[in-house]
Amino acid sequence: MYMEKTFYLETFGCQMNVVDSERIVDLLNGAGYRQVEAAAGAQLILLNTCAVRDKAERKVYGHLGRFKPLKDENPAIILGVGGCVAQQEGERLLEKIGYLDLVFGTHNVHKLPELVRNVEENRTRCHETDFLDRDTRLQLFPARTAGDATTRFVTVMQGCDNFCSYCVVPLVRGRELSRPSGEILSEIGALSESGVKEVTLIGQNVNSYGCKEDGELSFARLLTEVHAIEGIERIRFTTSHPKDLSDELIDCFGTLDKLCHHLHLPVQCGSNRILSAMNRGYTREQYLGKVRRLKEVCPDIRLTSDIIVGFPGETEEDFNDTLTLMEEVRYTDVFSFLYSRRPGTAAADLADDLDPGVRQGRFDRLLALQEETCRQWREGDIGRELSVLVEGESRQGNGQMFGRTTWNRIVNFEGGKDLVGTIVPVRIVKAYRNSHLGELVPGSF
Ligand code: SF4
Fold it and tell me: What is the CATH class of 385-440?
């Protein structure tokens, strides 16, 4: 009798992992597996992990523990781990977790159906975490179809060569590689034909796109080519490294109408001494100079950032430099993190004698400052009429629709499903921490 095979997938971390997970879904669908929403009853359970934050490995062990009772009950279930923790830990994960079947690294997602089949047929445990060579990686950039989506991520580059001293990404994602522009443009053309209205070009450091490939377009040129694709109405990109944010790219915010007026530009810290210890490759003054230029060419641009609090050796003066930088930039949102030592990174060898209470106290002060700035931004939107690209039914499940402003702010409002994929004017009536509530402007369409 035919038994349908099902899989359950949990994804942690950044947009690169989200894209990898979309790929996993495509690959497993092609191998005859159907995705389900609950682990209980699934034949295959996968975790796509992130190693960027604190205690990532331990958290993976914790998550896996949740599935042990299912595995005890039915040993035929295949339990697998992919992503950055899998890349970093490799075979060690199999050694430490006796009930784990499969470990696959960041360069081996394409092999997943084969690896699963191997476990299934031979009841063997396996791991595949080798980095691939450049030519093979170039063949394997994930290309996506639209499905019924209005917005899509498009991978333009992978890996990172920057080796910021606190970061594991170059160790777990490999060296920087740009995808050929022709391939990117034809993928976006196809997405547009299928109804996609907004693309977000993603990579670990998109601003250095093309720099290391002979004859390749610069990132600014690539954006210009994407802008020319009919049907695409909005363009975003992430993640940007401030040191690679060129004048040519800044100018795009003034010349390309489809480029959304939002930029995530992680500063990490406002002190030159700490920026140098982080190996970030720019000074506070250079960063602020780029912010000023961005605001000149695009006066209503809104910026968001990542900030690390309590890097080894951070003094009160260094921390105050971060606060004054935040006051000057006025980010609309900041993703702030307490510094955590990541094994294998350069900063892991630095003496770190900062008192945990002091570190936490600074973190709380930074949050308080940012919360006040966020409050001012969101309340300033109340009463304004904003253009919203409608993406679908609101996730709050109250029959409302949702979309985003050019600043990437979610807006929920009453409206019909026929609005999906259109840009509509919405008046903001309430501002919550993570979203706005709005009303369609009557008679405007
Ligand atoms: S630019 Fe720095 S923080 Fe960003 S992925 Fe590369 S090494 Fe990590």
Answer: mainly beta
Q: Show Cβ contacts of residue 378 under 8 Å, excluding neighbours closer than 6 positions.
A: 431, 432, 433, 436
> Ligand 1: residues within 6 Å at CB?
160, 162-164, 167, 169-170, 204-205, 241
- pLDDT of 148 strictly over 80: no
Q: What is the strand order of the sheet 151-155 is part of?
A: 151-155, 198-202, 234-238
Domain residue spans of the chain: 5-130, 135-380, 385-440
Q: What is the mean pLDDT of the chain?
A: 94
CATH homologous superfamily for the domain 5-130: Methylthiotransferase, N-terminal domain (3.40.50.12160)
Q: Which of 161, 164, 176, 339 to mutate to test the pocket of ligand 1 (most atoms within 8 A of CB)?
A: 164
CA distance 183 to 143: 9
pLDDT greater than 80 at residue 144: no
Ligand 1 nearest-atom number relative to CA 280: 2
CB 322 within 8 A of CB 353: no
**pTM (2 d.p.):** 0.92
What architecture does CATH give domain 135-380? Answer: Alpha-Beta Horseshoe (3.80)
Q: What does the block give as tokens for 105?
A: 């690294």
**In this predicted structure, what is the pLDDT of residue 2?**
58
CA of 392 to the centre of ligand 1 (A): 33
